[in-house]
Amino acid sequence: METIDINKKSKQRQKTLDPMKLEVQEQYMDKVRKINEKWAAEKGRKPVVVIVTFGCQMNEHDSEELDYMLERMGYDKTEDVNEADLVIYNTCAVRENAEKKVYGNLGQLKFRKRSHPDLKIAICGCMIQQPHVVEEIKKHHKHVNLLFGTHNLYRFPELLHKQITTDEMVVEVWDVDGEVIEGLHSNRKFNLKAFVNIMYGCNNFCTYCIVPYTRGRERSREPQDIIDEIKELVSRGTKEVTLLGQNVNSYGKTLDNPVTFAELLRMVNEIEGLERVRFMTSHPKDISDEVIYAIRDCDKLCEFLHLPVQCGSTSLLKKMNRHYSKEDYLKIIEKAKKEVPDMAFSTDIMIGFPGETMEDVQDTIDVIEAVRYDSAFTFIYSKREGTPAAKMENQIPEEEKHRRFDMVLEHVNRISGEISEEYRDKVVEVLVEGKSAKDSNRYTGKTRQNKTVNFDSDEDFTGQLVMVKITDPKSFSLNGEIVR
Ligand code: 5AD
Ligand code: SF4
């Protein structure tokens, strides 16, 4: 078994496009492509790859970059793991369930590898940034061929080449976040809407969260690089961008010439041809009034704010290391509602954090009732090895966590339904994303508030903004008629 370099240090510094790194990447993509051409000539078909992506939009975006590299290296794509010659798992470590799924899938692939010894398995993403996971895979899943982390994604072609030419297990994980590598290409899944990373990593160390350990410290991209990327996307037909970061409100602090997130939003709003701008995720402790004013003033900024509360109890928030109280949070919402009356809110809620009492749960329900979220992602607390909360006393039993979760979800769903009902007979602007099902004249799109709208049309308005009158609101989507 070969280990190229585990826990290799890389200096933490800002950097834009590095021609050397990209050149090396190009060279290895060529080398693998030549190997694959030979393989294809022998087998009469190209090798087939599947990327299975778990977790957040950051991972989705990383998978798009892998997708580009794989296409350049001569792979055909499939959605079916059982058809693939190369299976890549881009993993998530935020909750235990996603990790369990990966281990389950690895077990199944072990059987497949017996009848298909050529099958290659690669695992990347946040799980691999945890040393105990790498040890576990090296020890108990020896049929895996390649492991790499989140900071060295751009080195994938070189690592894959090494694996193919040595046929040994290749492992490369960097424990310190590196530079921001600019100029990497990606195969966007859906051109109309695109995710754009504006920063990487997180400095917050919420006590339950593994992300600061797997994605490293906060690094912001230069505003000009972000603007250039969005302009390029718009020139290829993109109408909506979502600016991505673990904590977008602290964007720009680490730059040589610091820029605030509100300033960046105003710059992005100036891009001609772009229709809509969204962003996530905002941390309540860092959101400034200027961000709310930017949403109020900028025509392209959608009236939608994803502001994770996690829980409504001030004492539990303190144990979570969140740096705001229930009252602070509600004040931000009040301000946002005042400045942007048609703002829709969404949030992340965590149930069952260690020591959570029924009073804490009631505080969370109070916040849900006061804010009235359009939608909320509700999570059951999952113990993550290496985080401070994993060692806290009074872990809540699984069954009790589920009981509380159901209680909270009832409020979330009721309010979602009520908000949908308020749309009845209203006319809303919809960015049409395409047909909701093949061979039908049913189309689907999103409002500025991120509500899904379905409507029938004989004409294809995909990529355009249309006006739709809502006739039949459902809890999680709105049905209507096009009025143009
Ligand atoms: N258990 C459950 N949910 C978690 N999240 C982060 N860490 C954990 C954990 N250990 C949730 C938070 C965060 C979202 C992306 O995932 O709510 O906002
Ligand atoms: Fe995790 Fe907190 Fe950072 Fe969000 S802000 S990624 S929850 S540590």
By DSSP (H or I, 4+ residues per run), the number of helices equals 13
Shape type? globular
Bound compounds? 5'-deoxyadenosine, iron/sulfur cluster
- Strand content is 15-25%
Cα radius of gyration in angstroms: 23 Å
Regarding CATH, which class of the largest domain? Alpha Beta
The main pleated sheet reads as: 7 strands, parallel
- Please give the CATH architecture of the largest domain: Alpha-Beta Horseshoe
Strands of the largest sheet, in order across it? 1-7-6-5-4-2-3
- Unreliable spans: 1-15
What structural category do the secondary elements indicate? alpha/beta
What's the number of structural domains? Answer: 3
Describe this structure in words.
The chain has 13 helices and 20 strands. α9 (289-297) runs parallel beside α11. It is of the alpha/beta class and 484 residues long. A hairpin with a 3-residue loop joins β19 and β20 (477-482). The protein has 3 domains: 3-172, Rossmann fold (3-Layer(aba) Sandwich); 193-421, pyruvate-formate lyase- activating enzyme (Alpha-Beta Horseshoe); 427-482, Beta Barrel (OB fold (Dihydrolipoamide Acetyltransferase, E2P)), CATH 2.40.50. Mean pLDDT is 92; it is low at 1-15. The N and C termini lie far apart (62 Å). The strands form 5 sheets. Strands 1-7-6-5-4-2-3 form a 7-stranded parallel β-sheet, with helices on both faces. The longest helix is centred in the N-terminal third of the chain and has 25 residues, at 19-43. The structure holds 5'-deoxyadenosine and iron/sulfur cluster.
Question: How would you summarize this macromolecular structure in one to three sentences?
Answer:
The protein contains 13 helices and 20 strands.
